[in-house]
Amino acid sequence: MNLLSPLVKQFVKEYQGTITDLLLKKPVFEGITNKDLVQQIEGRRIAAKKLPFLLADSILFPQTLNLEQSSSEATAQYKAQGLKGDLFLDLTCGFGIDAFFLSEHFAEVTLVEQNKELLDKVVHNWKILGRKANFVNGNAVSFLEETNLHYEVIYIDPARRDNYQQKKFLLEDLSPNILDLQPLLLQKADKVMTKLSPMIDLSYLLHTLPNITHLFLIALHNELKEVLVIQERISSPSIQLHCVNLESNEPTLTFSKDVWQTTAPLYSNPKRYLYLPNNALLKSGAFNYIGMYFGLEKLDVNTHLYTSETLKLPFAGRILEVSPIQPKELKTKSKYCILSKNYPLTVEEIKKKYKLIEGGKEYLIFTRSIAGYVVLLGRIVQ
Questions:
Q1: What local confidence, expressed as pLDDT, does residue 164 receive?
Q2: What pTM does this model have?
Q3: Distance between CA atoms of residues 243 and 247, nearest Å
Q4: What is the rounded distance in angstroms from the CA atom of residue 95 to the CA atom of residue 93?
Q5: d(Cα 115, Cα 141) in Å, to the nearest integer?
Q6: What CATH architecture does domain 69-248 belong to?
Q7: How many CB atoms lie within 10 A of CB 264?
């Protein structure tokens, strides 16, 4: 009996019990550990939310950590837009999600992965899904040093944790070392695409990596998922930033680094509408440009909230219709969605001080405007 046996596949698809119960039972199938069954059950559950294209019959899933570190189907599809050519190389393919979408319109695809067990699953799954590639079980640096080919696109998603699962943020601490690879990458590709942590510092990136032409700040349902760096052999005098919130109706903002750094803001006390930028926009640090682009005024130098008297649509984030409220007017045990922005108390401290409960449809925003600290009561418009 193996994981691809009809009875086993049916069990994995239909299992509704808890993982703990299954792990404590005697082996359900001869020759298969319950731990292996759990890996496939958890894989399907993650795929149902994150990677629905992998719910095809006979797909094999890796350890949960590999799945959690993989891009979602939505982000991978977004990054693949407009990519095509003859040769595509993924130096750190992992479970192969990004490569599957990014390489779709290339004549020849090469995937490098040093974990043989993981790569074996990728080989199996790509065959099931009807896709071909050159699969290389090896080291990314060694492969890049030895290949004589020139690729239109090289994609790399370096490991951001060490053997003790400690997160790494500096480029030289990643695996492989992104800084050491720069000369080779730019020599052997027209375009280099590097996926980095959403926690990476953008100023550090811009001062460290050469030939950057685009930075994509990619959020999904307002959760920032990754920073994608595009480098090209022929550098551009103007770096473009793209802020996108996938699976929303919010507009994508694209602007140059020059505009981002030089725009002057207008300030105002809160008016009828309050605007909360999405997390991709906030990550960009283009706080002054946001106001200019949408025709809004900023509450304060260090308060990244915006306001207007008339409704301005569309906006890349949430819009609330607000009015000032005195804290003494708040009723004990009332439920609010509570936000603290540039305010001396945290949300937990506010809840404790005013005896409030989080929840409900109304918002309470504790913040600072040019006139000082203010509390706003609001309802969501968008």
A1: 46
A2: 0.93
A3: 13
A4: 6
A5: 14
A6: 3-Layer(aba) Sandwich (3.40)
A7: 8
